[in-house]
Design a protein that fits this description.
The complex is a heterodimer of chains A (110) and B (120). Chain A is an all-beta fold and 110 residues long. Chain A contains no helices and 10 strands. In chain A, the strands form 2 sheets. In chain A, strands 1-3-8-7-6 form a 5-stranded antiparallel beta sheet, with no helix packed on it. In chain A, strands 2-10-9-4-5 form a 5-stranded mixed beta sheet, with no helix packed on it. The chains are: A mainly beta (110), B mainly beta (120).
Chain lengths: 110, 120
């Protein structure tokens, strides 16, 4: 099993839609999680950090299921500007390397 | 507050050559990590530097080496370039002790814009 696996995508949705991405991880010692957003040919940018069961920030909600070792990212009321690749990253302690999934590509159309 | 900066932005080299990429971390950060991102893949960890020493290394050959300077900036060197080394090279900075706040050490890494290396 790969360390991090994400929905392959791409997800093509209309503006205003709700879309959810799943990410599974193999290291049960992972304490916390990041979702990064990466625009085409740009660097990843931190979208959301999850340190407990979940986190909500505006239209974005991340939920963590430690028993099943997966984390999801829900985007409500999708905007054109949400079109990007979303990268899931689990980690287990400060100072260690980030292990990225391949990412899930979202395309929001008008 | 300056973010992470990298130079150069683009680079074209031929097989067998050597290349040096540079990174300046975000102000206040002391740890620099390097990642390689091939087209269509997520970033792959190369190594991490803290206190001028390589603290952790990913699954990359010895052709990949690095250095961290007293001002926390860092260099990534790649020798004997191969076609497969063509990628976006990302530098990320963080605090070794993690960002303050909470009981779980935070390891929020902030990425620079990357250097796009093309090997012909």
């Amino acid at each position: 099993r790969k360390e991090v696996e994400q929905d392959p995508g791409p997800f093509n949705v209309p503006e205003g839609a709700t879309v959810a991405f799943n990410c599974t991880y193999s290291n049960s010692a992972s304490q916390s999680f990041f979702w990064y957003r990466q625009d085409c040919r740009k660097e990843p940018k931190l979208l959301m950090s999850v340190y407990s069961s979940g986190n909500e920030d505006g239209r974005f909600t991340a939920q963590l299921n430690r028993a099943s070792q997966y984390i999801s990212l829900l985007i409500r009321d999708s905007k054109l500007s949400d079109s990007a690749t979303y990268l899931c990253v689990p980690f287990n302690q400060a100072g260690t390397a980030l292990i990225f999934g391949k990412g899930t590509t979202l395309s929001v159309s008008s | 507050d300056a973010g992470v900066t990298q130079s150069p932005t683009h680079l074209i080299k031929t097989r067998g050559q050597q290349v040096t990429l540079r990174c300046s971390p975000k102000s206040g950060h002391d740890t620099v990590s390097w990642y390689q991102q091939a087209l269509g893949q997520g970033p792959q960890f190369i190594f991490q530097y803290y206190e001028e020493e390589e603290r952790q290394r990913g699954n990359f050959p010895d052709r990949f080496s690095g250095h961290q300077f007293p001002n926390y900036s860092s260099e990534l060197n790649v020798n004997a370039l191969l076609l497969g080394d063509s990628a976006l090279y990302l530098c990320a900075s963080s605090l070794a002790a993690g960002e303050p706040g909470g009981t779980i050490p935070r390891n929020e890494q902030f990425f620079g814009p990357g250097t796009r290396l093309t090997v012909l």
